[in-house]
Q: What sequence folds into this?
C-alpha cells in the first residue's frame, strides 16, 4: 500500500522509502511533528491495535525536542507478539544525536521483544 507522507522535513524522502515498504504504521507525536503527520496519513492503518505476522510495520517516533511524545511501546509490543517485521531508521540515522526515540525503539525491540536487526533498519523476531 502506498501512503503519501506530507511534511517539510529534510528526512521526508527517507521516511517515504520506509513507508513504501510497510503495510501499517505505529507512531504518535506532538501536533507539529512529522510522526503526527505520518499517523494522520496512514489513517485507520495507524496504531491499529491488531497485527499478524504478515504485517510490515513502519515505526516513527519523535526525536529530542521540546514537548516530545515518547514511543508507543504498548502498541509496538502488540505488534511484536504477532511476529511482524518492523521498519525503523537504519544505524546511520538512528545514531544521529537528535534521534533518541529511534535508539529507544531499537533497544526495546532487542531487550523487550526478542527481535534482531536482520538488515539495516529491518527487524524480525529471533
A:
Amino acid at each position: 500500500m502506498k501512503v503519501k507522507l506530507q511534511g517539510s522535513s529534510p528526512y521526508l524522502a527517507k521516511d517515504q522509502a520506509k513507508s513504501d515498504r510497510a503495510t501499517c504504521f505505529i507512531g504518535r507525536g506532538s501536533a507539529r511533528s512529522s510522526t503526527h503527520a505520518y499517523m494522520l496519513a496512514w489513517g485507520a492503518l495507524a496504531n491499529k491495535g491488531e497485527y499478524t505476522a504478515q504485517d510490515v510495520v513502519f515505526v516513527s517516533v519523535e526525536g529530542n525536542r521540546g514537548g516530545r511524545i515518547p514511543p508507543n511501546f504498548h502498541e509496538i509490543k502488540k505488534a511484536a507478539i504477532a511476529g511482524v517485521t518492523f521498519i525503523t531508521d537504519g544505524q546511520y540515522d538512528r545514531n544521529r544525536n537528535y534521534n533518541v526515540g529511534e535508539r529507544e525503539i531499537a533497544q526495546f525491540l532487542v531487550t523487550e521483544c526478542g527481535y534482531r536487526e536482520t538488515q539495516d533498519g529491518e527487524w524480525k523476531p529471533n
